[in-house]
Write a structure and sequence with these properties.
about 550 residues; alpha/beta; FAD/NAD(P)-binding domain; Cholesterol Oxidase, domain 2; 2 domains; seven-stranded mixed β-sheet; 17 helices; 24 strands; about 25% helix; globular; GMC_OxRtase_C; FAD/NAD-bd_sf; GMC_OxRdtase; flavoprotein
Length: about 550
């Protein structure tokens, strides 16, 4: 059995940063385990390459959801990164912290002020490298800049390297509909419309492998294993009868290897992988584990429960008198132009994040804060991975930021190599159904504003014939898709919360020397894209671990 001070399971968004921080002290020996391979696939690094990484076994676990009643029985692809960098190697690259109210809620739910907005902001700043600091006079131009942004970290944040006439028109229309312009969605209140900032460097994707692993791979105290999947954790009782995590059983190269952690094992396997590993290790809902012949080490019903995700409803509008990516990319000359622009300028459609323009607003006037988010694109297609339409169009996808629906992730058997059952349970509450219907009406209102009138927008999907709440909810079930933001399946909570899996310092309740630091610990989903909040969680957890 090989022995290390720390074992980090998963070299994705959280795990890469965790390994970096724990191995900074040369006296700490760290093993980083990644089930996937190296991030040396060229499409990982070209921003538009997410199209070729998602649902590709080289880079993606290729999960599928269970058929979902809220989606009228449909099942969805459920991408999760399976490579160094994890989801940061295949995601939409959007840098989004969420809203201050998210973190105030976490502090209230856990009873720990370490999770309030101001304290979490310090953990965001600890690793941020923001484009605003490229200007040597930036601090003089914006006196609040040091409060909200940093230029000294590893996690690069840049402006997008493109503009589209139709997106500019949508932005103006949103402002005419009462949504103010915004040039920064990351100061605690996202209300507004503007271009997303992205995790890129000079037109290339910037994943956590580049940011946190490549600079430290020669550290003698860091060992990185790829193609190494955890079969289960080694959970034993000490002399006092307490459960202790002493390491993990790992399958690498077809062989089972036991590795020991002297100090801590840290799960960074994400909202799908972490509950699966816990259940395979005997930690979870007792009756479920017994059903699959797994010895119950700790009956903890919160494991795999509380799954939350952002479901986006894609509205497509045909337009006239303006170019969109549909027509540009549907011709050989257009494709050649796109390729040449990227080769020589690192800009244009090949540098695009999946969504370029964003907006945050209320689904109805009685909402106390912005509760829906738009991802707007100068293109349209029948479904992800399918060819673009042969007419000019834009897509305005809208999601409920704070869904009340809850799903689950649970093992299907005792086999470590069998995908778990992912049941998001979308649109299962009346509140979520109401927000879905109202958000489509907000989209229509924006499309009817004067700024878009000259392009004669025509609603192609879902279609103007659908007007009632019941009709719109049914249509949402037909056309909505995930934005790939699963969280919450090993939630943190106060000591008196029976559903909590970890305490407010992310220690697994009831098991010593085991901690979780990934999106699964979120008690409630953040109001925006979840990649950067996951990094913040890892930053905070690493600091606590090193403090002892």
């Amino acid at each position: 059995m090989r022995t290390f001070d720390y074992i980090v399971v998963g070299a994705g968004t959280a795990g890469a940063l965790m390994a970096n921080r724990l191995s900074a002290n040369p006296n700490n020996s760290v093993l980083l385990l990644e089930a996937g391979g190296k991030d040396n696939y060229h499409w990982i690094h070209i921003p538009v390459g997410y199209l070729y990484c998602i649902d590709n076994p080289r880079t993606d676990w290729r999960f599928r959801t269970e058929p979902d009643a809220g989606l009228n029985g449909r099942a969805l692809i459920y991408p999760r990164g399976k490579t160094l960098g994890g989801c940061s190697s295949i995601n939409g690259m959007i840098y989004m912290r969420g809203q201050a109210r998210d973190y105030e809620s976490w502090a209230a739910q856990t009873g720990d002020e370490a999770w309030n907005w101001n304290n979490c902001l310090q953990d965001f700043l600890a690793h941020e490298s923001n484009w605003r600091y490229d200007n040597p006079h930036a601090e003089l131009a914006d006196t609040d800049l040091p409060k909200f942004h940093s230029g000294k970290g590893e996690w690069r944040v840049e402006k997008q390297r493109l503009r589209w006439e139709i997106l500019e028109a949508f932005s103006q229309a949103a402002q005419q509909a009462g949504i103010p312009a915004s040039d920064d969605f990351n100061r605690g209140n996202n209300f507004g419309v503007g271009y997303f900032e992205v995790n890129q460097r000079s037109g290339w994707r910037w994943n956590t492998s580049k940011a946190f692993l490549r600079p430290i791979m020669k550290r003698p105290n860091l060992t990185v294993w790829t193609q190494a999947q955890v079969k289960n954790l080694i959970i034993e009782r000490n002399a006092s009868g307490e459960l202790v995590c002493n390491g993990a059983l790992v399958v690498k190269g077809g062989e089972e290897v036991a590795v020991k952690a002297v100090r801590e094992t840290v799960l960074c396997a994400g909202a799908i992988g972490t509950p699966q590993i816990l259940e395979l290790s005997g930690i979870g809902q007792g009756s479920l584990l017994q059903q699959h012949g797994i010895e119950v080490k700790l009956d903890k019903p919160g494991v795999g429960a509380n799954l939350q995700d952002h479901l986006q409803i894609r509205a497509v509008f045909k337009v006239q008198g303006v170019k969109t990516l549909n027509t540009l990319a549907n011709s050989l000359w257009g494709k050649a132009q796109i390729g040449m622009e990227y080769v020589f300028k690192r800009s244009g459609p090949m540098s695009m994040a999946p969504s370029q323009l964003g907006a945050f607003t209320k689904s109805s006037a009685d909402r106390p804060y912005p509760n829906i988010q738009y991802h707007v694109q100068p293109l349209s297609l029948p479904a992800f991975g399918q060819p673009l339409h042969n007419f000019n169009a834009f897509t305005a996808s809208v999601c409920n930021l704070n869904p009340s629906s809850r799903g689950s992730v649970h093992i299907k058997s005792s086999r470590f190599d069998e995908a778990p059952a992912i049941a998001p349970n979308y649109l299962s509450t009346e509140e979520d159904q109401k927000v879905a219907a109202d958000s489509l009406r907000v989209t229509r209102n924006i499309a009817q504003q004067p700024a878009l009138a000259k392009y004669k927008p025509e609603e192609f999907k879902p279609g103007v014939e659908f007007q009632t709440d019941e009709e719109l909810v049914r249509l949402a079930g037909d056309i909505a898709t995930t934005i790939f933001h699963p969280v919450g399946t090993a939630k943190m909570g106060a000591a008196n919360d029976p559903a909590a899996v970890v305490d407010s310092r992310l220690r697994v309740i009831g098991v010593k020397h085991l901690r979780i630091a990934d999106a699964s610990v979120m008690p409630t989903i953040t109001s925006g894209n979840t990649n950067s909040p996951t990094l913040m969680i890892a930053e905070k957890a690493a600091r606590w671990i090193l403090e002892g």
